Predict the 3D structure of the following.
Amino acid sequence: MKKLLLATAASALVATGAHAESHTADIKLGVVLGFTGPIESLTGAMADSAEMAMKEVSDSGALLDGAKVSGVRADTTCIDSAAATAAAERVVTSDGVKGIVGAACSGASGAVLANVAVPNGIAMISPSSTSPALTTAEDNGLFFRTAPSDARQGQVMADVLMDRGVKSVALTYTNNDYGKGLADSFKSAFEAAGGTVTISAAHEDGKADYSAEVGALASAGGELLVVAGYVDQGGSGIVRAALDSGAFDTFHFPDGMIGDELTKRFGTEIDGSAGQNPGSDSPGADKFKTLVGDAFDTTSPFTPESYDAAALIMLAMQAAKSSDPADYKTKVMDVANAPGEKIFPGELEKALKLLADGKDIDYVGATAVELIEPGESAGSYRIMEVQDGKITTIGYR
């Protein structure tokens, strides 16, 4: 009996040590974004933002038993599902990540979710995948997003155009899940509001010449051209061809087109054009800007959403007392929403300590986070206009 008791005590010590090691060991999170491809000019700041949240948590020493968190970057290319799957598989199987911030583009997120996240039980929070199709994807409760669905963006875009007195538009969209989902959502909302879409035509990325596409758009007519594309790819090609031919000189840009690269390419040529991307004028947005300083551009699309995505994963871990996605996936909605003490950027240590004490938090974050079923952002948008060759914020919705 004495030997049995000693053996039991020894086993308990080993188990306790293993448990402590699992908490204090480095926790890795995948930062699975399109570092090359159609939004590569945006993803650097997105990754920096997510990793800033990880550093904030690591420096606090308050996650689990003092766990440190680091990011492992992987490139989906945004447009190649096989590459996205391979990139995600690598960080899961080789690097042992406990969650994924990403993917960036909707098609990549769909591929990673179906081929990697669900089979391996890995939670993922995308800061920028907006296709409405992802709302109903089979995800076993593992997929969340801090950027709102394009079902919401399509309505916002229609409202903005109608408020600006625009009643007819030509529409072109990049030929993928993101582009088609947004185009369908916008067309439905705009026509329901009394507007006319003279043509809705897909374009392929990676072409050297878009004159044929612009010719068809111009023939259909419209007060301006809506370009639901990518600023680093065909969307900019369409704009350049339209300007050079004189077909259109005013445009409306959804989120995939908005960024510094837009005004670097076109400057004052597109003055008077407008658009929208996810954004908020909440107190958290100002706190995020102060926290970041001049480290990167906080107005770059999906940058604050990336901080929030990483933060939610780590806060959910704390709430679950576990870095296992099977445990913490059920806590993401809890930490994101009321009730609880409101948490803003720069307050992750405070949040972790509250959770450790068994208290509730309501993570507001940089983007006024509010998650609705099935785990996606209710969403607000920054409305912009190009004035004197610069992107200027003119309101929020």
DSSP finds 14 helices and 16 strands in the chain. The chain has two domains: 2-149+282-377, 151-279+380-396. The first helix runs from residue 2 to 24.
